[in-house]
Design brief:
Chain lengths: 110, 111
């Protein structure tokens, strides 16, 4: 089954404790991206990657890092999470304009 | 001003009603357009692409007006299962390669 998976689905952590949210797709898509979704603000792009070892900042990259060492994986790293990074995070991969989203990760930073 | 703007709603309509949503975009470099559907706390899923000539998929009709820079979605004969948030999405490829999402319009279809 073609899909995008994310882990963990839910995470509660404390300020400053480094965390990684994994994202994996099995569709051989070159383009992958990370979004956060907040009430009233919609989906905002954090980082995207056009291919292996090619990443670029989206609209809200501050406080986040990504890597793309393999085509299928695109982890999101929060080196020192802060409460304003509490949000719902979606990973997506795409072929052309259609994006396939993962199920989301609900992150709470205390 | 947001690059893609939508009325947040909610639009509260009875079953069987026809409802229309509009969306405006500000960047003329926008190349492709889509409507996505998002159910509460779930991931967005592609509903339909929007073509310049307009296109229809069952009860759903999408229109694009490049001159006025707006996109519309018409839903006929609304079903309870149509209750969701509808996201207007614009794809542009200039110095970047990205999808820009509107904040969404919430639709509630009541019995």
């Amino acid at each position: 089954e073609a899909q995008v998976t994310q882990n963990p689905r839910y995470l509660i952590t404390v300020t400053g404790k480094k965390l990684t949210v994994t994202c994996s797709q099995n569709m051989n898509h070159e383009y992958m991206s990370w979004y956060r979704q907040d009430p009233g603000l919609g989906l905002r792009q954090i980082y995207y990657s056009m291919n292996v070892e090619v990443t670029d900042k989206g609209d809200v990259p501050e406080g986040y890092k990504v890597s793309r060492k393999e085509k299928r994986n695109f982890p999101l790293i929060l080196e020192s999470p802060s409460p304003n990074q509490t949000s719902l995070y979606f990973c997506a991969s795409s072929l052309g304009g259609e994006q396939f989203f993962g199920p989301g990760t609900r992150l709470t930073v205390l | 001003r947001k690059e893609v703007e939508q009325d947040p709603g909610p639009f509260n309509v009875p079953e069987g009603a026809t409802v229309a949503f509009n969306c405006t975009y500000s960047n003329s470099a926008s190349q492709s357009f889509f409507w996505y559907r998002q159910d509460c706390r779930k991931e967005p899923k592609l509903l339909m692409s929007v073509y310049s000539s307009g296109n229809e998929d069952g009860r759903f009709t999408a229109q694009l007006n490049r001159a006025s820079q707006y996109i519309s979605l018409l839903i006929r004969d609304s079903k309870l299962s149509d209750s969701a948030t509808y996201l207007c999405v614009v794809f542009r490829m200039d110095s970047s390669y990205k999808l820009i999402f509107g904040s969404g319009t919430r639709l509630l279809v009541r019995p």
